[in-house]
Specification:
With 386 residues, the protein is of the alpha/beta class. The protein contains twelve helices and ten strands.
């Protein structure tokens, strides 16, 4: 049975600063493990090491390198020295891009430890083989605080992108196309370059720390995921045609390291027959984020969720991912997995700040989300098309 009282209790329990790779994240993991052990469920621990280079250092290197290249091309002085510096910066940028193609394999700058916890509950039929027909529920365990809130960071990134584009256009026109108007382009090209330098400077100042309770992001997700573990721990609630997996990832806030290590260990998973739900930052309204590649099974569950009988309004939210953002659901979506993110939009005002606290979360909403999902999966299971 889904219980709001237990949801409230777990929300309070997991809402504390728990930066990835620290003793605080490990504390949250051990608390979760104890909850699962008390339910007598089998679980798997996936330990891994990772570096914070990809999430915290690489973006600063990339943005700074491009800004310095634009600055040198704009000045167009000391040509030989400038070319040498540009080649050095390009080499650093290209090397960083190559290294970060598989950031989970980077083990320099800082070597940190984290872990995932995976709970598996078999179907009632017990005849599902090779990891096909899975309902996978996900949430990440870690939190982080940053100097700038999410909305501000998105605006800074957009400012950097547009100023880079306009600076590049004016530099090309000034240096190679309309050289007779070089002075004019020097003047009008100064504004986007200044804005670009400003955006890069702000990015460099955006430090990561352990100051946020991470109630919305993502104690709310942990709580929903754990409540479903409690529900399906009862054999009477299990499904006939779907195995149930519950994944709690570590180091999501440091470049989605946990889900990357989970994916690298995954074998014989059949995305077309499975469905994934990623709980991420739920506050007072429920949004569902389609991955965009859903097949018949996923679309059927989507329809059942939207047309639920629990009087829960769920907003369909389709948007392009902003450059520089990471999430567990986004990573699996890029790999062709089918499913939905369940979260919110308005919490961006509080995420990664000291204002990310439990009073901003509607626990009755969390309860209804869990009920809607169990209803939808039960009905989908009873009409399962093999």
């Amino acid at each position: 049975m889904i219980k709001e009282s237990r949801i409230k209790e777990n929300l309070k329990k997991f809402a504390f600063p728990r930066l990835s790779g620290t003793e605080f994240e490990l504390k949250a993991f051990n608390m979760l493990k104890k909850e699962v052990e008390d339910l007598n469920l089998e679980y798997e621990i996936q330990k891994f090491t990772f570096s914070s280079f990809y999430s915290r250092i690489y973006p600063k290197i990339a943005f700074l390198s491009v800004t310095l290249i634009l600055f040198l091309l704009y000045l167009k002085i000391l040509i030989i020295i400038s070319l040498i510096l540009i080649l050095i910066l390009l080499s650093i940028l290209i090397a960083s891009i190559i290294l970060t193609r598989n950031p989970e394999n980077i083990h320099f700058f800082s070597k940190l430890r984290s872990q995932n916890l995976l709970v598996k509950i078999k179907s009632l039929s017990g005849n599902i083989k090779n990891n096909d027909r899975i309902a996978l529920f996900m949430s990440h365990l870690d939190s982080k605080g940053q100097r700038f809130k999410v909305k501000t960071r998105i605006r800074i990134i957009k400012l950097w992108i547009f100023s880079s584009i306009f600076s590049s256009i004016f530099i090309i026109l000034k240096n190679y196309v309309l050289r007779e108007f070089e002075v004019i382009f020097y003047i009008i090209g100064l504004l986007p370059l200044i804005l670009n330098i400003l955006a890069t400077s702000l990015m460099a100042l955006n430090i990561t720390d352990n100051s946020s309770d991470g109630a919305i992001d993502n104690a709310s997700g942990i709580t929903c995921n754990l409540e479903l573990v409690n529900h399906y721990a009862n054999p009477e609630n299990r499904l006939e045609n779907l195995n149930l997996w519950f994944l709690f990832t570590g180091a999501e806030e440091c470049g989605t390291m946990g889900i990357r290590h989970f994916y690298n260990k995954l074998e014989n998973f059949v995305p077309e027959k499975s469905i994934i739900f990623n709980f991420e930052s739920i506050a007072k309204r429920a949004f569902i984020f389609p991955g965009g590649k859903e097949g018949d099974h996923a679309k059927n569950i989507d329809r059942l969720i939207l047309n639920n009988k629990r009087n829960l309004k769920i907003h369909h939210y389709i948007t392009k991912r902003v450059f520089g953002t990471h999430s567990d659901g986004g990573f699996l979506g890029d790999k062709g997995f089918q499913g939905y993110g369940i979260g919110g939009v308005e919490p961006h005002e509080y995420m990664h700040t000291t204002n990310d606290t439990i009073e901003k979360i509607d626990t009755n909403l969390l309860k209804k989300i869990c009920l809607v999902l169990t209803d939808a999966l039960k009905e989908h299971d009873s009409n399962y098309i093999k």
